[in-house]
Amino acid sequence: MQLRRYLGSHSRRALTFWFENLIALHLLKLCHFLHDREGFAAELHYLRDRTGREVDFLVTVDRRP
């Protein structure tokens, strides 16, 4: 309920954008943790479909998914 009040009259698209950014930041935090704590070369990427739309995130460790 709090989030709905915060967004007010904003569209569902704004909520989707907010949620995707939340997920991306958590995955990036994981990559930084793996690098700092474990020494892995972890990277965050996003995948696109043939039309150029972003469709998913991908975390790689030592260049492997």
Q: Helix/strand-derived class? A: alpha+beta
Q: Report, as a whole number of angstroms, the end-to-end distance.
A: 37 Å
Indicate the radius of gyration in whole angstroms: 15 Å
The strands making up the biggest β-sheet line up spatially as: 1-2
Basic shape: flat
Helix content: 40-55%
**Uncertain residue segments:** none
Number of helices: 2
Number of strands: 2
How many domains? The number is 1
Largest sheet: 2 strands, antiparallel
Run of helices and strands: HHEE
The average pLDDT is 87
The proportion of strand residues reads 15-25%
Description of the structure:
With about 60 residues, the chain is of the alpha+beta class. The chain has one domain. It has helices spanning about 1-5, 10-40; strands spanning about 40-50, 55-60. It has a two-stranded antiparallel ribbon with strand order 1-2. The radius of gyration is 15 Å and the shape is flat. The mean pLDDT is about 85.
List the topology elements.
Blueprint: H1 2-7, H2 12-38, E1 42-48, E2 54-61
Antiparallel strand pairs: 1-2
How would you summarize this macromolecular structure in one to three sentences?
The longest helix is centred in the middle third of the chain and has 27 residues. A two-stranded antiparallel sheet has the order 1-2. By secondary structure, the protein is of the alpha+beta class.
